[in-house]
Amino acid sequence: MATGYVYHEVFAWHDTGTGAGLFASDPAAGVQPFMHFENADTKRRMHELIVVSGLIDRLTRLRPEPATEEDLLRVHTPGHVARIREESADPRGGDAGDGFSPFGRGGYEIAALAAGGMIEAVAAVVRGDVDNAYALIRPPGHHAIPSTGMGFCVFNNIAIAARHAQARLGVKRIAVVDWDVHHGNGTQACFWDDPSVLTISLHQDNNFPPNSGAIEERGEGAGDGTAINVPLPPGSGHGGYLHAFDEVVMPALERFAPDLILVACGFDASALDPLGAQILSSATYREMTQRVMRAAERLCGGRVVFSHEGGYSPQYVPFCGAAVIDTLAGGPEVGDPFLPIVSGFGGQGLKEQERAVVAEAARQHGLITEGAAR
Ligand code: 3YP
Ligand code: ZN
What we know:
Layout: E1 3-6, H1 41-52, E2 59-62, H2 69-73, H3 78-89, E3 94-95, E4 102-103, H4 107-127, E5 132-135, H5 157-168, E6 174-178, H6 185-190, E7 197-204, E8 227-232, H7 238-256, E9 260-265, H8 282-300, E10 304-308, H9 317-328, H10 339-342, H11 352-364, H12 370-373
Parallel strand pairs: 1-2, 1-5, 5-10, 6-7, 6-9, 7-8, 9-10
Antiparallel strand pairs: 3-4
Helix pairs in contact: 1-9, 4-5, 7-8, 7-11, 8-9
3-cyclopentyl-N-hydroxypropanamide (3YP) binds at residues 22, 100, 142-143, 151-152, 180, 182, 208, 266, 268, 275, 309-310.
């Protein structure tokens, strides 16, 4: 049992500036400078916990190489890649595309290294060097569409790694499970009409992007039915998310029969996150990881690769992230001091409105399970 791990210190040098969370400061409008939500702290602190807890000694360290232009262009338009490269050369930096995804000078190289980190994690698993892998990369990727970045994402790391795997590593069918609290719109768009890639997004109903990720979004043409969306109501917890796994994610994976599973692993559905309104604990992330591993073992020789996405609690992301990687590496060995508090929050049980959304998503995709039939 070997688990690959990608991290590079330069990921913390991706400079999102001193805005007020989302916006540039603007004293005249009363907007004080502070830190961008997507600053280095959550990821750097997660890496430090992985080292200090000793979890690092159970992992196989993988070295990221920058994604090549050829890799980027399998997913993104030449215009997008060129614009990011040009703005990245400007000492003032630029923006990934929507005005609240700033990057500093050299942002192109760091974003290319993030995508390349995910490529290396996938390649190590496909080569059989490791059984599974976690890419702790920054900037994130799941909102980036072919023509632009958005939502703090510059390049779509998962889509780039998936296309690399298909073009270079002989992988055919790929399933993406996205449990970031925001809709995985970019990944969905990259494979919208492509039946070789299944995208499943569990997200908070209509959070970000606006009006994105409805149950009715299901892919088109040859890809009809290969995009699955489960927009869970705010306040969803342990019971709601695991129910979505049992009734939608697991049967959908089983039916699709992928050769490789990728996870868009955000931690912004945690109870302590400033950008989400869900209440997950590290125990939920542990159990979702176990379920994905079980599906991968049944369907594709255990081949599963995690790509870090959002998650904005500097205190809690490290423990949720360590729980996922610990599980991939055969744990439980790493603890979570927040768990007694967070797992005791009201609303962790499955609620009727969550059951209804999950049932509707399962119905939309013809996924009838024992649980639903009861
Ligand atoms: C982008 C702008 C407002 C919410 C924000 C979401 C970024 C994220 O974590 N996406 O997964
Ligand atoms: Zn997110």
